[in-house]
Amino acid sequence: HCLSVRAVCQREIDCDRGHGYSWKITLLRNYWKSKVKQEWLSGKYSNVPSRNSLPEKSMYPMDVDTWGEILEAELER
Asked: Origin, by domain of life (predicted)?
């Protein structure tokens, strides 16, 4: 699980580890974020007609840099 989360959230993982969080806490802090972020980056939510058409688990609190990555991926599609 740690490696799959790090593949998507490397910056977030490195930041948490740099702040001294244990691997377990780091995984707990980033697991759902990595799932949601991967779906956004893969284009699962591209061209949605409205916010109401998004699944309930499509949002997660993410920082500005993470949303920047997602928006850059959208621009490249």
From this structure: Eukaryota
* Burial degree of 37 (CB within 10 A; 0-12, 13-18, 19+): buried
Q: What is the pLDDT of residue 13?
A: 93
pTM for the structure as a whole: 0.76
Task: Return the residue matching tokens 């993410």.
Answer: 62
d(C-alpha 6, C-alpha 48), whole Å: 27
Domain that holds residue 66: 1-76
When divided into structural domains, the chain yields a total of: 1
Contacts of 34 (CB under 8 A, 6+ apart): 4, 5, 7, 8, 9
Express each pLDDT in 37-48 by its tens digit.
999 899 888 887
